[in-house]
Specification:
Elements (H helix, E strand, L loop, with lengths): L4 E4 L9 E9 L15 E9 L3 H5 L5 E9 H7 L7 H5 L6 E4 L12 E12 H11 L2 E4 L3 H13 L12
Antiparallel strand pairs: 1-7, 2-3, 3-4, 4-6, 5-6
């Protein structure tokens, strides 16, 4: 089986780069919308995949990068037990907001696949992510055509339109 991934290092970021253990600010529901009092912000830690197009990053069109959370099958199933019988539907793109990627360690083992969750998206500063990428050393990067497939899945999720009614059936 051909690998979805290549291993890269350094601070250059591309769409499809997998960045482990990124710090993400956790904004509480009761966060004030007015006032000058300093607020403490907790940090969560997630594995994230870069969703911002590579060309926008390389041409310095963005200062903040869009990322999606990535989970192992095991961790995702623990949090979402009903998914256990639906992995083939996820694989076929029938479960809204989820996208499966092959494991970069064992691509032939589907239980080691990775799940991208488009329901949990973050934006983080480019400078932070460059430092994170450099600190990680070697990291996985989606190869073509899988990075394009990921990009299209991300776009499909956001371009959905909910209509109040449709043209009646013929």
């Amino acid at each position: 089986m051909e690998s979805y991934w290549e291993i890269v290092s350094g601070g250059d970021l591309w769409q499809g780069d997998l960045l482990h253990q990124c710090k993400v600010p956790k904004i509480p529901a009761g966060f004030p919308d007015v006032g000058d009092e300093p607020q403490e912000i907790q940090l969560d830690e997630y594995d994230l995949v870069v969703a911002t197009p590579t060309c926008d990053i390389e041409q310095k069109k963005v200062k903040v990068i869009t990322l999606c959370t990535v989970w192992t099958v095991e961790r995702f199933e623990k949090a979402n037990p009903s998914i256990k019988s639906k992995w083939n539907d996820v694989l076929k793109g029938r479960i809204e907001g989820l996208h499966l990627l092959s494991s970069y360690e064992e691509p032939s083992k589907n239980r080691m696949a990775l799940i991208v969750d488009f329901h949990a998206i973050y934006s983080l500063p480019l400078e932070y992510l460059i430092r994170r990428a450099e600190a990680l050393g070697k990291r996985p990067r989606l190869r073509s055509p899988w990075v394009e497939d990921f990009s299209q899945a991300f776009a499909r999720y956001f371009m959905r339109v909910s209509l109040p009614s449709r043209v009646p059936s013929f």
